[in-house]
Amino acid sequence: MNVNQVAENLALSHQEELVDLPKNYPLSENEDEGDSDGERKHQKLLEAISSLDGKNRRKLAERSEASLKVSEFNVSSEGSGEKLVLADLLEPVKTSSSLATVKKQLSRVKSKKTVELPLNKEEIERIHREVAFNKTAQVLSKWDPVVLKNRQAEQLVFPLEKEEPAIAPIEHVLSGWKARTPLEQEIFNLLHKNKQPVTDPLLTPVEKASLRAMSLEEAKMRRAELQRARALQSYYEAKARREKKIKSKKYHKVVKKGKAKKALKEFEQLRKVNPAAALEELEKIEKARMMERMSLKHQNSGKWAKSKAIMAKYDLEARQAMQEQLSKNKELTQKLQVASESEEEEGGTEDVEELLVPDVVNEVQMNADGPNPWMLRSCTSDTKEAATQEDPEQLPELEAHGVSESEGEERPMAEEEILLREFEERRSLRKRSELSQDAEPAGSQETIDSGSQEVLSELRVLSQKLKENHQSRKQKASSEGTIPQVQREEPAPEEEEPLLLQRPERVQTLEELEELGKEECFQNKELPRPVLEEQQSERTPNNRPDAPKEKKKKEQMIDLQNLLTTQSPSVKSLAVPTIEELEDEEERNHRQMIKEAFAGDDVIRDFLKEKREAVEASKPKDVDLTLPGWGEWGGVGLKPSAKKRRRFLIKAPEGPPRKDKNLPNVIISEKRNIHAAAHQVQVLPYPFTHHRQFERTIQTPIGSTWNTQRAFQKLTTPKVVTKPGHIIKPIKAEDVGYQSSSRSDLPVIQRNPKRITTRHNKEEKL
Amino acid sequence: METAPKPGKDVPPKKDKLQTKRKKPRRYWEEETVPTTAGASPGPPRNKKNRELRPQRPKNAHILKKSRISKKPQVPKKPREWKNPESQSGLSGAQDPFPGPAPVPVEVGQKFCRIDKSRKLPHSKAKTRSRLEVAEAEEEETSIKAARSELLLAEEPGFLEGEDGEDTAKICQADIVEAVDIASAAKHFDLNLRQFGPYRLNYSRTGRHLAFGGRRGHVAALDWVTKKLMCEINVMEAVRDIRFLHSEALLAVAQNRWLHIYDNQGIELHCIRRCDRVTRLEFLPFHFLLATASETGFLTYLDVSVGKIVAALNARAGRLDVMSQNPYNAVIHLGHSNGTVSLWSPAMKEPLAKILCHRGGVRAVAVDSTGTYMATSGLDHQLKIFDLRGTYQPLSTRTLPHGAGHLAFSQRGLLVAGMGDVVNIWAGQGKASPPSLEQPYLTHRLSGPVHGLQFCPFEDVLGVGHTGGITSMLVPGASEPNFDGLESNPYRSRKQRQEWEVKALLEKVPAELICLDPRALAEVDVISLEQGKKEQIERLGYDPQAKAPFQPKPKQKGRSSTASLVKRKRKVMDEEHRDKVRQSLQQQHHKEAKAKPTGARPSALDRFVR
């Protein structure tokens, strides 16, 4: 504080002096002296006052009296705020060589740093540890591949044995072999004479040298080439990087334009030279066009374009930019015209037209043009289906109508075929009935009608009715076609069917609808003969095991109860030559009796009831936590309010759907077999994260019951095999092919030093 | 059944016709030379279901069959093309005409593949993936090995084929017997035992021995091929059912009051009083369980290896007298008087499933050897074939004039029904197809009403017990032509039987493992797995397997401010949330799309639909 104040004062006084000086210049010296004297006194007074309270007062060394004679030792520092530097003092007016050495010494002293403090002990230790860890980790890392290999190995055999080569090299064999017989000796002599190798190295020294020799020049050349390639690559990379970093939009625009131009030029050239390649190129361009048409890239719909659109009113440039974008879009989306341009132009106009109309219309047009009946059928069937969906009430008539329409030209043929088939069928039927009569002269009890050919399961009565409907429709159609047809006898079951069955007329039609849809699919696939197919299915109802299931589901949707109540025996005929010798009447009586016996016995209702109970029992129960009388009046006959009950009712989560949900005639127990569950796996083993993964690995049985002997042995080989009576020594570096243990780490590290260092970094982090 | 000679045809042509019919190369069945114990295979190498090495069986002496086999060239075993024979030359200079391992046809190998690759697996880590790959490679290797050993199953099933258009059902036993060789003809025989009432019968698992018990107490066991009687006794009590235990040495007889066990000398070993008033017996060979159904409505499982009653289940459906076992999963099927068939396992107190099959009571139930089809017949005179693979729906139905009282499946899926004194046999297309009830394959009339039916394993023979005794019919193509010498060897010696007994006992399956889908045991128990996981989370206070929350990476140049970190976290969170929403929306769409086609537009008539 004090210091500041003092300094301020000083500065002020200075200013005053400075201001005063020009003014007072002409004044006499006396006045000047008097004036400055007053100033000083005032200053002094101020000083005294200010230093009265402050503790750390500082004395300013100041001469109070003016003296004419100023000693050279008493130097005033007034006026110069600079510090005195030692070098300045030493420096003479003229530079002298004698002082240079001193100066140098001085600078040397200055440049010398002080010795740093030693680190504390903990830190030193930590550094030591780190270094030691790195070193040992490096040394140990050579075992990593060995460990990995052993972990993945199917079987490990201990004690470890170095694999000896099965056949000793021929040199070894020869070295221990001596020529004994005279013939051998003679041969050896010959060989020795010709300096042929007899024992250890089988190659002559010359051969060895030639093997080892490698042309130096070639190697050099190759090296130089490689170097060049590498350098070139690095240049190119650097260039690309530089160019990529350029942020100027204009530059990129220019580059793009240039590229486009170049491409166009090339294309032109290609068109002249190689039209095939040009065509391919054209296709590419076409594809780009397609992409453009699909995307909204240049449609003035982006963020930039929107912002420009706002500006466009006022900014000519923005408007231009937008225009440019639009033109680009047009350019890109325009079709390229290469071949005969006059034709193409027409097509182009058509194109434009077609763009306006939806695709469906186009398809129809095309179909109308082309005489392909397949296309036609599918198309019409489509429309038909749509129609049927529109009003299911009018379906049957519409459907018949549609069929007759859609068949078109092929209809007569198909009808003929149908007729032929029917005739054949009837003939075979007659034959069979004859045969059966032959077989059982005692009396075939059943009247064999056409319906007797089909096996009716009661659960499929609906489908049966459906088929009958089809037949009747077929008859109608045939009558339309003015071809006489013998009516097939309808089987008796109609009478027996309960009234319930005849009720949902609409449902049946719906079923029909779907059936028809299916058949139409068939038509498209194979032959356009729905009626025939129907017949075939009639004849062999068991050939399609999947059909009843579908039916089942639908029926389940309709009404379960109804479905089950249709279980009256609807087939009484058997096209089988049984050798039963029951009288017709007797049989009938018997059946009647059975029917009566079961009339009151409602098996189905009992079963349904049982099933309902089972379903209820398996459902998770809701928890009711209401306390009667809590927070309201309690007592006999008082119930907690509904609101309260609702509030405290904890609804149990809905379990998975029952397995027999869609199977009306089955109750499948949902209870868990806890005894079997005790034998099941309950914990997922290590590498697996989902139970299905683990299940897949245990799906193949390994027992000898299900496998061949070899496979069983292979599947059950022990993971570790030890030889009894042998010492299992720890693994050594030599065992796995490394050199001596002291320097064994070297080769590994040299091989891939980078990998190891990165791993160590990781470990350190951990 | 002799057809009347047609007018205008004299006798010799008819005979000629018959002969052609009999000598027809397409009609034959497998037969065996009279087996002797000398023909028994000396200890064949270990293997079972796959039958890598089939013990020699002097079975197909039929020349025609051989010619038929030779007609089929070894198409599947076609040698690989000789690519470069020079490289294959060995020391002798001879070339291997079939270098490399024998190729295996894909479809044969496919048959042995167990891994269901249609199910998608969740994404797995590299380590897991390597394990899965190993498992798949193993499966492929073993399946190829199994397929290769299929070559050793040389026998083919027999069959019966009529001349063009001729109905095989009209061929009677006499015709068949006349056409086959002597050894096979000897397998057709009748035992006239009119004295002791209707007979029940049972073949041993190897198909070599036959035991039968008459209603009036007559019990006998014999080696039916050589017709050597083992024992014959009269228990002086009504015999309701009879069954061999795991081997032919033990015999369980359900008598009027209690269940008795005899040995093959006819010596009574046990009288099990806890099983009283037993009506039907079934033996589960792999579990060593004897299942008994009693008049009192109890289904009792008796472990015959330790003599303990494993479970006594009350079916709560009155008197039980219709029972059969599913050989695939050892589930017991009981038929009840209310038209249902219930499926039982000793581990559960209530039925595994209940199927409503008939309007009237169920008279007979049979399950085929693959466990796929169940045939039932009821008092409503219907014969139905149900699919047991999860749906339990009838595949085909037929009303029989008299209703079938007894049903049985053969090893190759032939179905026999006994209706009064007539036996009808239906055949399917192949082994794994249900029998088609259109046309019977064979019919036969017996001297009395049928009381027991069983196909003989590994022989084309059907045994029928009736009031007049026992009839052994020839049914070509009924049984498996190749048997497993280690599992059920008809020619085994006593020593071999003892060995097998020990092994079978060692491999005994615990009773509680019986369930509808035996493959389910190879699945992880998901419920306890999840329970365990929940407990672990509770114990640890966190989920060790949960995905770690996203931690933004630190960035430089001042971009790692707290605000930006939060922003980045927010972004990731939002993205995850969006994914979830998208998925749920998709699911909704799917549901709607599914619901649409079924639900047609509402109509005014809907109110009438009940």
UniProtKB/TrEMBL annotation, chain A:
Q: Where is the composition biased (Basic and acidic residues)?
A: 398-435, 503-532, 546-557
Q: Which family does it belong to?
A: Belongs to the UTP14 family.
Q: Any idea where this protein resides?
A: Nucleus, Nucleolus
Any idea which UniProt keywords this protein has? Nucleus, Phosphoprotein, Ribonucleoprotein
Q: Name one GO biological process term.
A: rRNA processing
Q: Which domain of life is it from?
A: Eukaryota
Q: Which GO terms describe its cellular component?
A: small-subunit processome
Q: Does the keyword Ribonucleoprotein apply?
A: yes
Compositional bias of kind Polar residues: 444-455, 562-571
Q: Please list where the region (Disordered) is annotated.
A: 14-48, 333-354, 366-588, 734-766
Full protein name: UTP14, U3 small nucleolar ribonucleoprotein, homolog C
Compositionally biased, Acidic residues: which spans?
341-354
Q: What is its main location?
A: nucleus
What InterPro entries does the annotation carry?
A: SSU_processome_Utp14 (IPR006709)
TrEMBL record, chain B:
Enumerate composition-biased segments (Basic and acidic residues).
7-19, 572-582
Membrane-spanning segments: none
| Source species, domain of life | Eukaryota
This protein's name:
WD repeat-containing protein 46
Q: Which InterPro entries match?
A: BING4_C_dom, WD40/YVTN_repeat-like_dom_sf, WD40_repeat_dom_sf, WD40_rpt, WDR46/Utp7
Q: Which UniProt keywords apply?
A: Nucleus, Phosphoprotein, Repeat, WD repeat
The WD repeats are found at: 355-389
Assembly and partners?
Part of the small subunit (SSU) processome, composed of more than 70 proteins and the RNA chaperone small nucleolar RNA (snoRNA) U3. Interacts with DDX21, NCL, NOP2 and EBNA1BP2.
List residues of the BING4 C-terminal domain: 440-518
Feature: compositional bias, Basic residues: 56-77
The family database entries (SUPFAM superfamilies) matched by this protein are listed as:
WD40 repeat-like (SSF50978)
Might you report a single GO cellular component term? nucleolus
Organism listed in the record: Pan troglodytes
Q: Where in the cell is it found?
A: Nucleus, Nucleolus
